[in-house]
Amino acid sequence: MKKDNIPEIRMRGFKEAWKHKKFHDVFDYLQNNALSRSALNYEGGEIKNIHYGDVLVKFGEYIDVSKEILPYIIDDDSVAKYGNSFLIDGDVIIADTAEDYMVGKCVEVISSGTERVLAGLHTIPCRPKDKYASKFLGYYMNSEAYHRPLLPLIQGTKVKSISKHALQDSDMYIPMSEVEQGKIGDYFSQLDSLIDLQQNEIDRLICMRKAMVERMFPQDGADVPAVRFRQYKKPWKLCQFSEIFTERHIIDTLSDEYPQLAFTIEEGVIRPEDKKTNKRDFLIIDKATKKYLQTEYDDIIYNPANVIYGAIHRNALGRGCVSPIYKIFYTDQDSTFMECIVRHPRFIKEISRSMEGTVKKLRTLKPKAFLEMSAYIAPTIEEQQQIGEYFRQMDRLIEIEKEELEKIKHIKSACMEKMFV
């Protein structure tokens, strides 16, 4: 549809083709007020400074500077060294230098009002020559429709950049009607609000879970937790892990029954295709004969080198094979309950004392040292199961909310692809 200058998905009631313009038809460049580190040390008036690291990655397509940018305290004389082109509502700040393809992405300044705001490091500040509806330019210039054609204009390998000269003749397609522009900006702004609300709910649940882990397990040498299910009265018992865990060390090759699994610090056991980074399976040329460790559902798995960073989880996925660098244990106690024990922040601190090695980065937790550790555990399997089920339900609720968040993000991504020319 781009040849007709009409987006694939459009707000109802609008038919006219979008107008083709060049960047220089839409914007004037402002003086780039790149504040030096020394300038930030001056005392004086309150100036808000927007630069790549604080804004473009963190806040996306637009930013309300009255709410979201912290002030740097500098005086008027130091500002004068770098020009006095303060940003106003509707100005656009483009990233001109970065280590990734965020180069060419932008934020649109919203609600600056009387705030004194300067564009700072690694940015190109621009002011529209004509009036455009609030937030439209921010969303449009971050869409693939506009940003994809900029990629050939980006220079550099490790550090990438784009120049004002390269931007000058870039193509832009803008709806003639300011009403249509406004509806598009409002639509994406509402999606962003939904994303923020959903993320806040996830953060709230995660915070609640952390608080309940702290309260539902004994602390500071106590033998009962601060919060407990009413029917249980007996004190918890101190057990050495050799009484609770047995190492599972079955070496085998991959099979249909035991497929390859991956293990991450953040998520524990996952499918290899769900791993976000460090995907190196294509480098393994002997995968069919390579030896792996078998794991079963509910096993406790840890990475000996990264366990102090939280790389210890229950296998909540199912049977399969993982790298032999990991250590695997099973238990006849409630596995979710035991996962809460071994992932408790206080226990993670205890682990660091049991790790062996002189160089910090090379220290590891050996199975023997793990089995010599101890913790207070609930005295009956029924109490363990009830605690475990409580956290399983909370984890399921968090996952449901995360799935809902991904749905909204997917809707936004699809609309960003189809609602711009």
Q: What's the topology here?
A:
Elements lengths: L18 E4 H4 E3 L16 E5 L1 H8 L2 E3 H4 L2 E3 L2 H6 L10 E4 L1 E2 L7 E5 L6 E3 L3 E6 L7 H6 L2 H4 L12 E2 L2 H5 L2 E4 L3 H38 L21 E4 L4 E3 L3 E2 L9 E3 L3 E3 L21 E4 L4 E3 L9 E3 L5 E3 L4 E5 L3 H8 L2 H10 L12 H5 L2 E4 L3 H38 L3
Parallel strand pairs: 3-9, 4-8
Antiparallel strand pairs: 1-12, 2-10, 3-5, 6-8, 6-10, 7-11, 13-23, 14-22, 15-18, 16-17, 18-21, 19-20, 19-22
Helix pairs in contact: 8-12, 9-12
Would you kindly provide a written description of the structure presented here, covering whatever features stand out?
There is one protein chain. The chain has 421 residues and is an alpha+beta fold. It folds into three domains: 1-17 and 176-223 and 380-421, Helix Hairpins (Orthogonal Bundle); 19-174, Adenine-n6-DNA-methyltransferase TaqI, Chain A, domain 2 (Alpha-Beta Complex), CATH 3.90.220.20; 237-377, DNA methylase specificity domains (Adenine-n6-DNA-methyltransferase TaqI, Chain A, domain 2). The chain contains twelve helices and 23 strands. A hairpin with a 3-residue loop joins strand 16 (262-264) and strand 17. Helix 8 packs antiparallel against helix 12 (381-418).
Keywords:
421 residues, alpha+beta, Helix Hairpins, Adenine-n6-DNA-methyltransferase TaqI, Chain A, domain 2, 3 domains, 5-stranded mixed β-sheet, 32% helix
